[in-house]
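Q: What would this chain look like folded?
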Amino acid sequence: MDYSIAELMAVVLSRQIKDGEVVGGGAGLPVLRAAQLLAHLHHGPNMKFHLIVWTNLFHEQNLSLSLFENTVDWQQVRWAEAYWMQDEMFDDMRLFRKRVMFMSGLQIDKYGNLNLLGIGKDYNRLDFRGPGNLGAPTMGTYVNRYYLVVPKHDRRSLVDHCDYVTCVGWGKGGKDARTKLGFPGDGPVGCMTPLCYMDFEEESKQMRLKSLHPGVTVEQVIENTGFKPIIPDSVPETEAPTENELQILRTRIDTEGTLRKLKL
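A: My prediction, written as structure tokens:
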């Protein structure tokens, strides 16, 4: 391959975003940032790109990932087209129905539920304390749809059941799971990992293997997943980045090769 797995992940995620959509989430993950910026520069000049307190950078600006190392760096606002205080963004929840989000977690289960709290059965004595939540529960409830991203595909990250659920995906399963909970949003529709891309089967809403990254086998995915995803009879290889997508990614976004250096 003439591209890294992180670059592949960013490119495939960028293709899930349509021009004119409102996009946000994943502020601390370079793969997600790169995906959103690539979508904006490649095919989404009219999309709204939200990160913390500002939205959209002027389209002519080179959007190097190095600009985003500090998510509250006021220098970024110099190139922003709009600016909001955080509480203003939550004033009208109806606006969230137009948004597409990207999320990750310490644990993600087979129905797309997230755990950002911590690992361990005893809440008072966690084996590992996570960052907790900021906007994930609200966004996961209201947004039009969202995508999950797993930085490391293993049995500790992809689990049968989360120790704690801090953001509900498809609950206990079933296409009516979120309706029963009264959630207005449509929930997670895909999960990107360093080994594969998965979606959610229409009836059960359990993760289903959608494509395998180059060199990866179905057996590898099963071996490294804490649950058995639904396996179709035929699983294609994940579509490679185009020359144009890589050119934009490397010359206007990831100019320092951050994604090529990531160890996933």
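Residues 29 and 54 are 17 Å apart (CA to CA).
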